[in-house]
């Protein structure tokens, strides 16, 4: 059976197989080697996902090579803004991430876990693209709050001994990141997806999972002898 990598997260993960998405790029990158599977749940925070974690990862599931965990953008919604129903206090967010990692590592000790921090927030972009009525006229997320949750995500990775992509910091290293990487102040453009793809590939490579180290599925066409094609399929 071909190995698998599971992408687990909120809408940024659910959308990752859109045209130019980071999940689609991973699937192409690991073609013939790994099945890349999406488990993305738009709008979910870590509190909600903990309630259904056993449904997402049933006991009988086979061991994945790796799981990316990409939550926090919804947890970081400000409690007194129109998206406040999604808010999860930062200390609870940290504990929820630890609980998710603990369950996965207990079930699959060899699975590589890669945390991804929330992305930075373009507050002006959120005001132009609200997902509901916004009586206050204020963005439901701020970049400062996203940064605080990103910091806790990094702390969890250090505490649990897993890899982490600091997307919040990485994107802000580029000029005009607000419009270049975010289409609505939160969700990713093609360039934003490319950043996530590149960072995840780099983290997986450091964990020993790369196109150079993973076996391909079935003989390559280049390895098939034109004079005796069936020889390649004998075991």
UniProtKB/TrEMBL annotation:
CDD domains: Isoamyl_acetate_hydrolase_like
Keywords from the named record: Hydrolase
Cited SUPFAM superfamilies: SGNH hydrolase
Pfam families on file: Lipase_GDSL
GO molecular function annotations of the record: hydrolase activity, acting on ester bonds
Domain of life: Eukaryota
Family: Belongs to the 'GDSL' lipolytic enzyme family.
Protein name (record): GDSL esterase/lipase
The organism's taxonomic lineage, starting at the top: Eukaryota, Viridiplantae, Streptophyta, Embryophyta, Tracheophyta
